[in-house]
Structure formats: structure tokens, C-alpha cells
Specification:
Length: 461
Amino acid sequence: MKLWSGRFRKETDALVNDFNSSIPFDQRLYREDIEGSMAHASMLGEQGIISCADAENICTGLRGILADVEAGTIEFSADNEDIHMNVETILTARIGEAGKRLHTARSRNDQVALDFRLYLRRQIDEIVEQLLHFQKVLLQQARQHTETVMPGYTHLQRAQPITFAHHLLAYAHMLCRDVTRLEDCRARMNECPLGSGALAGTTYPIDRFATAGELGFDRPMGNSLDGVSDRDYALEFLAACSILMMHLSRLAEETILWCSWEFKFIDLDDAYSTGSSIMPQKKNPDVAELVRGKTGRVYGSLMSLLTAMKSLPLAYNKDMQEDKEPVFDAIDTVKLCIPVFAGMIETMTVHPENMRRAAGRGFINATDCADYLTKKGMPFRDAYTAVGNLVYYCQEQGKTLEELTLEELQRTSPLFETDVYEALNLENCAMSRASFGGPAKAEAERQIREIEAFIQTRENV
């Protein structure tokens, strides 16, 4: 018999029962459900709403259920619909009448809202931990390549000289924002919906501040309608995960390019590559490709929940049962992608000589050449035109800018002197870009220290 069956006179159709049931996926909330129920029972006892003996009996029974679930000796039933009713049914079977008092001053609406927040809060902490480790991997690689010159690109065309450290640190900075986005999301979700009831609170003298504090929340949610109907925190979490996956996907795309024979900037470790069933020479970047593909899956989770929530009237609607599967899938996907991607980056082999060779073609020191003339007194726009003419001449002659003779350079401008070759040297070009955030070695080292401090601040909490 279902716990809500009092006003019904027919059994639920078997197909409807399966359709309505959420236990196949929401059973992963068992720990949060039990933690929330223990806090609720303790508060009921302290407020004299139920006896202290019943409250203690309930908490003892719930601790036993938690131990048995984790030991794998409990099997949940679809007949009990969801994790909340499964736990309550098992509890009542074990401790009798006291178990029936647990749901006093509570609804499944505020119960599920509580469980979901508790679960997401824990998952955010775990994802942040993974991101901090990934940042350490990026910093480890960056430290080794503060002087490894490579071409920086715009429009996938060689643009200006940078270092490999500078490129990797761009992603380390992106991950800083991913971490703070998740932290912001966690801070905003850290309000407790328990005590909102079905939608209108309760007539019992509950202490919502006590349960909120017991469960580690900053405060109770301020409106009971909002308490049961809000899923902003889940949407914000999915949005943060989508942006995070976009960052991984961008680095995945570059990794795929870099390990191709056309670039050959890196080689991926055999442990993070796969082969072909027919072409024996192939070494495929499947990890990077899968991360790129799974990004769309996380985007889909966000769109799924946005669509489910877009026209729901207050307060709770059964549509909101569709919140968990996309969030769970996004969590599983993100937590799978980050560590395997970090391992791939940590074990890759970098080819500085190929990066330097690529930097030597494409006239990526043209801006430096124009800056040289500007520093000699020529207006930048005139210098820009002069160097553009030099590039055209180089293309006709099959030369690079630094291969031009001083005589050839001076045909364009008498401002060119022998020190121009120092200005055109690619290593000098990269290292002289010492403006804040630039690729110069000292700046790269500053960025590394800054991100190390960012990581340590969070690990020392």
C-alpha cells in the first residue's frame, strides 16, 4: 500500500507506476535523504512536536538504514516511487509507530528540494577538487615551457609569437573562473528549503533555523513557495558545467590539432590514445575527441532543464521530477572528463623544436617590425603599411623578415638599422612582451605564482 493511498480506491496501473517512479535514478540521493530526515527528526524532538524518545529511535533507525544501503544489503522498490518513500517505508518496517511520525511537518516537496541541494553542494566540492588538480597539471607543464616559443593564432592563422606556457596558462585562468563560478553557485544554493512543506509552510512550531544550521546551510529559504519550486541552483550549476565543458572542448580541439602530423607540436602518451582497426600507423586522440563530444551532452542537460522549467506555475509540479536525470548525467560526465583530460595533458610529450619551426614561418614578427619603426619615430599606421609592403616583398622573394638584408629593409625605410635584427628575433619578440598578462618569462612566472596561490587558498580551507 502506498503511503499516500488514503483517498484512492483503485490500485495504480502498473504502467503508470513505472512511469511515475523516480527510484531508478533518485536512489543516489539516499545519503542526503537520510541526513535531512535525521536533522528533521531531531528538530521535531527538540521542539516537542514528537517525543525525544521517538526522535532518537528514528535517528537510530536511519543510521542503520544508511549503513545497510552502503553495505549493499537494501534493495529499493519501484512500488514506493522514490527514495523518500523507500526510506520511510523501510524505517517504519524496522521501528514501527515512531517511523510514521517522521513526516510530521514535512512534505516530499521540501524534502526533495533539500536532498537535491545537499547532493549538488557535495558534488560541487568534488568537481572543484578535480579542477584544482587539473590546474596543477597545467602549471606543471607551463613551468617547463616559459621559454618555448610557438605561434599564437587568430582565425587559426599564425599571428604573433608567444610561449607554450602562455598558451597553457590561458586555460589555467579559465579554470579559475570555472572554480569561482561553481563556488558562487554553491553559495547561492546554500539556503535550506526544509520546513517549506508542500508550499505553505506548516502550523507546527518548527525551528527552520535549527535544521538549516544542522545541515550546514547559511539560512532557511525566505519564502515557502520559492523553497519548493526553485531550481535556479540546478540551472546555474548546469550553466557553470556547460562553460567548464566548453573550456575543455576548446583545449581538446587544440590538442587534436597539435598532435596531428600537420602540427606535431605534441605527442599523446600511448596510455591516452587508441589505434585503428585497419590502419596500423594510426594513433588517435580519442580522449580529446570524446571530451569535445561530451560537451554537447552537458549543453543538452542545461537545455533540457531550462525547457522543463520555463512555464511551470508555482509551486511544485511533477514536471520537476525531470530535474534530476540531466543534472546527474552532467555531473557524471564532468567528473569523468576532468581527470582523464588532466592525465592526458600531464603525460603528453611536447616538441619545442616543431613549435619554434612553425613560429619561424608566417611573419609573426611583423607587428614587432612595425613597433620597431614606431619607436624610431614613424607613426604606427605608416609603419603598419611599410611592413605590409615588406611582407609582400618577402613572399615574392621566398624570405622571412629577418632574412632580408639591411639594404632591402632600408629601401622601405631609412629608419631601419642593424638593431632591427634583434627586434625581429622571435625569442626576443616573445620575451619583450612583458606587459601584464603577456608571454614574457617573468610574466608567465608571475601568473604561475598567482594561480598557485589561488589553488592553495582553496586547499587550505
